[in-house]
Structure formats: structure tokens, C-alpha cells
Specification:
mainly beta, seven-stranded mixed β-sheet, about 550 residues, single chain, six-stranded antiparallel β-sheet, 46 strands, globular
Length: about 550
């Protein structure tokens, strides 16, 4: 063999090896997804995060954390005359998905470990916090011209709301439940005839001495208009209008607590038009064994987190927890409903609990849960990130199907060295398997919606294009994005809408969809509409359900 021939053989072998390697990477991404760094420094750690209907994310931390890494640009901080006492560090930002840029915002009072829910018009109603912010009600009305900012209400909450939970109700009010040493609930807005806060003995009963384990209680609006409330390891169905417990559910097995600081997570599985959105199932995953918080905070012993998940049909005649195991232990994991109606469990740690420096062993690999699979076959391990996302991490699903992940700060203040897990300001996107180019031929493009303001029970027309015939398995999902903090995605909700047969037109396809019949199934507000064709989601478009 001549030198020239040998060189040719070596080049061919190198190309074959390279193609095999690229194919292997592509194959992994086809099933496990991949990660992409979006921002090296967002300026603010994402303790709280939510997606607004202007396709921007609202991110904020706390005002008493000291200097952040981004300055305010509003008066008087936009000139050199600002008083030395003026805090010109921004503690909130608005992230623009389209431009991948942030805009600093001005928080007046402390939002440390607070809660929120969206009003029907898309305004975020944000409540509580710590110190001077414990009883404050704040509003953020999203805008497209970069002029919007935080506004504080002259009306205050009745009780301190630190680690409380919020739920939007069918009548448009927001119920605010619990918080540290606040064993009660109240409404925003409050009507003059209301006494203020209403006592909720369930919160006293589920409060573990020395650990609590019922902060940030899980709230889900059930199909009868009543509220499912979960704290620690117990749950009730609650009539908030009559201040009456209607049902007490079985204690969740698993040997530990599920709420802060043991910090598992909870999601209501997608509702189906086939049963008129009546069947309601709750899934709760992760948490920490009893006593784990004390061990982590008193002697730096970090016990393994819980591996178990519990699933219960709360509308059943005989509700019972069906238990199953995750592929690994996880505490402080975020649970999000993907456009495919699968559940993503992301962020968190394998050992310890929530709290300052109270966890070890970051859980770098997300889990994917498919509710429709048989018990024992529902979980898949996904591609790992290289960035630990520990205490005070957050995640939100974006309209294009990616998942934005940010935050992680186990320290009081911003610390970038000398600690096990430094303050994290990088923002990344997890790109799920369904966004791989392999699936593009199945991906629908929504071209028009007959009306974006959709009344309950009414029909509306959606037009879309597709490079092939639609699958027989096609779903039309409406998703209410959550407000996410401390491993708890408040007000997250997905509904699979009823549809007419699909019609082929000159410029693609059209289908008629029917809105839910009432605000009990879908509280009024903005939702992301996605067409899922053969398991592959389109990019979502905003719609709004109204009375």
C-alpha cells in the first residue's frame, strides 16, 4: 500500500469514527434532551420566577440580600445624584425570551420566600415576604414597551405571609394560605364584609415541632370548585367559602414529609375534556425523611432524600395513594407539565433539605414522568446539567417548549467563593427530546386563531400547517404557566380541549376547539395553546379564557 492509499484509508476511518460519535450524541439527545447556556450572568438570583403573556419572564430574589450583580436604571439610580442610602442594586429583572436580555426592575419591599398568582388580565398579584414585605401586596402588569415595573398596594394583608401559597379562584380572587406561624388564610382582594384572616386548624395539625414541614402548602383547585390542600404528609378537600373541611384524605406513605423545608413537589395531572375535566389526579414526588431538617441544620448530617412519589385520584369514591419510585432520591425538585402532558422533575439535591447550606449532592439529571404509562414504566432519566441547582432554584416552561432554568443560592447574600454551592447567576435552557430535528416533520405550525379572547363554553377555530397528514393521535392542550418558587409551581394547570374533526383547507388545516364550560375547570386568564401531533408539540400561542 502506497503512502497515498494509507492516508486515504486513515481519513475514511476517522470520518467513520466521527460520524459514529456524532450519531451517538444525536441519539442521546433524541431521548434525553440537551442543555444550552443562555446567560452567563443574569444579575439576580432566581428565587422566584414566572412567565408572562408578553413572552418575558419575571425573576426576583429578595431586597435584603445585599448587592446583586446588576444596577437599577430607574430614577434616582439613573444618575449620579442618588443618595448613598438609596439601594440602587436591582433585586428583580425581566428576561426577554426573544432577545435573551434582561431589564432591571425596582422592588420596594422584601419579597424573600413569597408567593403569587396571575389575575385574569395577566397582572401578577404578588404577596408577602419577610421583614418590611411580610404583609405587602404587589402588582406587576406586563407590558411590551419596557415601561412596566413593580407597584405596591396601599392595602396590606391581614397576616404575615412568609412561605405561603396562592391559588387563583373561579371568582377571580386569590386565596393566600399559611406561612410561618400563620395558621390561617385570606383573600386578595378582600371584601369589606370579611373579617380578614380565617383560621385553618389543618395547618396547626400538620406543623411538625422544630421542623414545620407544612410551609408552602400544595394547593390545587379541584373540579367541584373546592380546594385540595396538602401539608407535610396529609391532605384535605376544603370549602374556602364556608371554612369547612369536606374530606380528609389518607396520609401519604413514604416515611417523610413533602413540604418546606423537606420540599418535595406537587402537580395536578392534565385534565381531560373526555370526562368534562372532572377527574382530578394529584402527583407528589420527593421530599425528605422525618427529622432530616434537624439533622442538616444542627450537625450537618445530610440524609438521603425520598425516592417515592404518590399519586391519588382525589375525585374517586375511595381515594388512595398509589406509590411508585423515582430513579433516584430528590429534594427541592421542581415539577413542570411539559406541552406533551408529561411531567418534568428537575433541579434539587439527593441529600439533605431546603434551607441555608442544608443539602449536598446535586441532582443533576432531570426525570421525565409519563402519566399514561403503566406503573413501573413511567420514569426516564434525562441528560444531566453541569450546573448544580440547589436551594432557591427555579424553572419554567417556555412557549417554544424549552425549559428555562435559573437560580440556586444556599447562602444569605450573594457569595461566589468559600461555600459548597456558590450563588448561581447563570441561566440555561433544558431542551427536551421533542425539540430534536428528528421530530420536525410531525411539528405543527399554528398560523391563526379565530379569537384570542375565548368565552367559556364557546368554540373557536385554529388554523395550522403541517408537512404531512396529521396523526390520529393529536391533542390540543391549554396550559396555565405557574409562579415557581421553593420547588412549588403554584397555579400550574393543563387542560386537553375537545376538538372537531380536522379539515384540510387550501392553506393548511383547521380545527374547531371548545373552551372549558366554566372558570372552575379553567380560572380566567392567559393560557398557552399547543397542538401535540403524534407526541410532538407545536410552538404555543397565547389565548385567554374569559366569562
Amino acid at each position: 500500500m502506497t503512502m497515498g492509499e494509507l492516508r486515504t484509508v486513515l481519513i475514511v476511518q476517522a470520518l467513520l469514527i466521527t460520524n459514529c460519535y456524532v450519531g451517538l450524541i444525536s441519539g442521546h439527545q433524541l431521548h434525553q434532551g440537551r442543555w444550552e447556556l443562555l446567560l452567563q450572568n443574569a444579575g439576580v438570583s432566581a428565587m422566584h420566577m414566572t412567565l408572562t403573556h408578553t413572552n418575558k419572564l419575571l425573576i426576583f430574589d429578595q431586597t435584603l440580600a445585599g448587592p446583586s450583580q446588576i444596577m437599577r436604571t430607574d430614577p434616582p439610580c439613573n444618575n449620579s445624584t442618588a443618595a448613598a442610602s438609596q439601594d440602587c442594586w436591582a433585586h428583580s429583572i425581566e428576561y426577554d425570551i426573544a432577545t435573551n436580555r434582561v431589564r432591571p426592575l425596582h422592588l420596594l419591599t422584601d419579597t424573600f420566600c413569597s408567593s403569587a398568582a396571575f389575575a385574569s388580565n395577566g397582572t401578577l398579584i404578588q404577596t408577602g415576604g419577610w421583614s418590611d414585605g411580610a404583609r405587602v401586596i404587589r402588582y406587576f402588569a406586563p407590558c411590551s414597551d419596557a415601561t412596566c415595573n413593580w407597584i405596591e398596594s396601599p392595602v396590606h394583608l391581614t397576616a404575615n405571609r412568609w412561605y405561603a401559597s396562592n391559588q387563583i379562584l373561579p371568582d377571580g380572587r386569590v386565596i393566600v394560605i399559611g406561612g410561618r406561624r400563620s395558621f390561617n388564610y385570606e383573600f386578595v382582594p378582600r371584601v369589606p364584609s370579611e373579617a380578614g384572616a380565617f383560621q385553618l386548624p389543618f395547618l396547626v395539625k400538620t406543623n411538625s415541632v422544630g421542623e414545620e414541614n407544612n410551609l408552602y402548602p400544595f394547593l390545587h383547585l379541584s373540579s367541584d370548585g373546592n380546594l385540595f390542600i396538602f401539608g407535610n404528609k396529609d391532605s384535605i378537600l376544603f370549602d374556602y367559602n364556608k371554612n369547612q373541611v369536606l374530606k380528609t384524605f389518607p396520609t401519604m406513605p413514604g416515611g417523610g414529609a413533602r413540604n418546606y423545608p423537606s420540599s418535595g413537589s406537587s402537580v395536578m395531572l392534565p385534565l381531560e375534556s373526555a370526562n368534562n375535566f372532572q377527574k382530578v389526579e394529584i402527583l407528589i414526588c420527593g421530599g425528605a425523611p422525618d427529622g432530616a431538617f434537624k439533622k442538616a441544620t444542627t450537625n450537618q448530617t445530610f440524609v438521603e432524600a425520598l425516592r417515592s412519589c404518590g399519586r391519588m385520584e382525589i375525585t374517586s369514591q375511595n381515594p388512595q395513594w398509589e406509590m411508585e419510585e423515582m430513579p433516584g432520591p430528590r429534594v427541592m425538585g421542581d415539577m413542570l407539565i411539559l406541552p406533551t402532558a408529561q411531567i418534568l422533575i428537575i433541579n434539587g439535591a439527593k441529600n439533605g433539605t431546603a434551607g441555608w447550606q442544608s443539602a449536598r449532592e446535586p441532582a443533576l439529571s432531570p426525570f421525565l414522568y409519563t402519566p399514561t404509562e403503566a406503573l413501573g414504566n413511567r420514569f426516564r432519566v434525562l441528560a444531566p446539567t453541569k450546573i448544580p441547582r440547589m436551594y432557591h432554584s427555579t424553572a419554567n416552561v417556555l412557549p417554544d417548549g424549552r425549559v428555562l432554568v435559573a437560580g440556586s443560592n444556599s447562602n444569605y447574600g450573594y457569595r461566589f467563593s468559600g461555600v459548597p454551592f456558590p450563588t448561581e447567576l447563570r441561566v440555561e435552557a433544558y431542551i427536551p427530546y421533542y425539540l430534536h430535528p428528528h421530530y420536525d416533520s410531525k411539528r405543527v405550525n399554528i398560523t391563526a386563531i379565530s379569537t384570542k379572547e375565548i368565552k367559556y363554553g364557546s368554540k373557536f377555530i385554529v388554523r395550522f400547517t403541517l408537512s404531512r397528514r396529521p396523526s390520529e393521535n393529536i391533542k390540543f392542550n391549554a396550559y396555565a404557566p405557574p409562579f415557581t418558587t421553593h420547588s412549588w409551581s403554584m397555579n400550574q394547570r393543563m387542560l386537553s380541549l375537545a376538538a372537531t374533526p380536522i379539515v384540510k383547507g387550501k392553506a393548511g388545516y383547521l380545527v374547531g376547539l371548545t373552551a372549558p364550560s366554566s372558570a372552575v375547570a379553567a380560572p380566567s386568564g392567559y393560557y398557552l395553546l399547543t397542538i401535540v401531533n403524534g407526541g410532538v408539540p407545536s410552538e404555543a400561542k397565547w389565548i385567554r379564557f374569559i366569562s
